[in-house]
Amino acid sequence: MVAFASTADIANQTARIVEFAEGVYGYVSQHDPNCGFVVGDEYVLVIDTRATPAAARAWIADIRTVTDKPIRYAFLTHYHAVRAMGASAFGDAAIVASKATGALLTERGQGDFEAEMQRMPRLFEGFEEIPGLTEPHILFDEEVTIKVGRRSIHLMHIGRGHTAGDSICWIPDCGVLFGGDLIENRTGIYCGDAYIRDWLQTLERLRAFAPKVLVPGRGAPLTTLQAVSDAVDSHKNFLVTLLRTVQLGLDKGADLPGCYRLAREKITPLYGDWPVYDHILPFGVARAYDELRGLQHPQIWTPERDQALWKAVHPGGKSS
Questions:
Q1: Metallo-beta-lactamase domain: which residues (predicted)?
Q2: Is 234 a residue whose pLDDT tops 60?
C-alpha cells in the first residue's frame, strides 16, 4: 500500500539557526522548508512565514535568541501554504510578495491550503487558528529594495519556475541568496504548479548571481560556488529527465497513469533516494503531461483533484 503524499512522514524535524554573514541567518531543517531572517540596526526582515501561526511562533521564539528587535517585514518567496499561512503570527509586519504571488494567493490559495494540509499533515498542526488567506501589503513587479540597517535587501522575481510568482532574496554585500523553492538541494522537486521549461532558464538566471551562500527551499545550504553550480545542474537534470520521460510516454500513446509508470521506471533509479521524492513525483508527472500537451498554466490543485490523481497512478493505494 502506498501512503498518500507525505501522510506517512510523522517524524518532526528541528529547525536550527545558521549564521551565514553578520546579521544574516538561515532557519534550516533536514528537508522541511527552509526560511531565513536578516537583522538590521532597528528591525528584522524574515524570509517566508512557515505553515501555521504555531510554527511561526516557534520560529519567532528562536529568532528572539538572536535579537529582540521588531520584525518589520515578512517576505514570501511564493504562494504555497507552507510558506505563507503562518503570516498572522508576525503581527504588524508588512507582508511583501511579487504581484504574481499576490494574484496566485487570491486565485488558488484556498485550494492549495486545503490540498497541502491533506498532503503534509505534520506541517499543519494547529491549522485551526489560521485566520484566512495571507494578503500581502507590498507587491512588486520585478524587484523591490528594502533597507535593513545599512544593508540593501533585493527582493526579485527573476522568472517563472516552481510557480508563476517565485521570488528570491539577494543580499549582495555578503553574497547570500535565499532561493525559495526555485532551487532544491537533493530533495524532491515539486513541479505540480510549475512552468517546467521556463524553470530551466530561470535557474540559469539564478546561477548568474554567483552567490557565496545559496539557501535552497529544502536541503542543506550551499556554501561554495561549486556547490551552487552542482545544485543548479542536478535540479535542471531532474526537470529535463522528467520532461523527456513524459514526452517518451506521450510519443508511445500513453495516458497519464502510463506516463507515471514510465517515470517510475526511468527516473526512480536516478532520484528515488531524494527525500519526499515519492510524494512529489505524481504531481510533477501530471504537470509535465499537461505542459507537453499544450496546457499553458497549471491546473488548480484541490483535495479532490489530489485524491483522483493518487488513485489513478496508485491503483489500490492508500489515500488520506
A1: 32-218
A2: yes
Q: Could you give all domains of the chain from N- to C-terminal order, each with its CATH number? A: 16-313 (3.60.15.10)
Rounded CA separation 62/18 (Å)? 11
Strands in 168-171's sheet, in edge-to-edge order, are 143-148, 151-156, 168-171, 176-180, 213-216
Long-range CB contacts for residues 22-25, cutoff 8 Å, separation at least 24: 22/174, 23/148, 23/149, 23/151, 24/171, 24/174, 24/176, 25/66
Helix-helix angle 277-292:225-251, to 10 degrees: 60
Q: What is each CA distance from 36 to 45, 67, 69, 214, in whole angstroms? A: 9, 14, 15, 11
Beta-strand pair 176-180/168-171: antiparallel
Give the integer Cα–Cα distance in Å for 19 and 171: 14
Looking at residue 146, the DSSP 8-state letter turns out to be E
What pTM does this model have?
0.97
Question: Contact at 8 Å (CB) between 319 and 311?
Answer: yes
Tens of pLDDT, residue by residue over 287-313, are 999 999 999 999 999 999 999 999 999
Rg (CA), the chain: 19
The average pLDDT across 121-135 equals 97
Q: Report pLDDT digits (tens) over 154-193.
A: 999 999 999 999 999 999 999 999 999 999 999 999 999 9
Three-state DSSP state, 270: helix
> What span, in angstroms and rounded, lies between the C-alpha atoms of 287 and 272?
19
Name the phi and psi angles at 96, rounded to 5: -120, 135
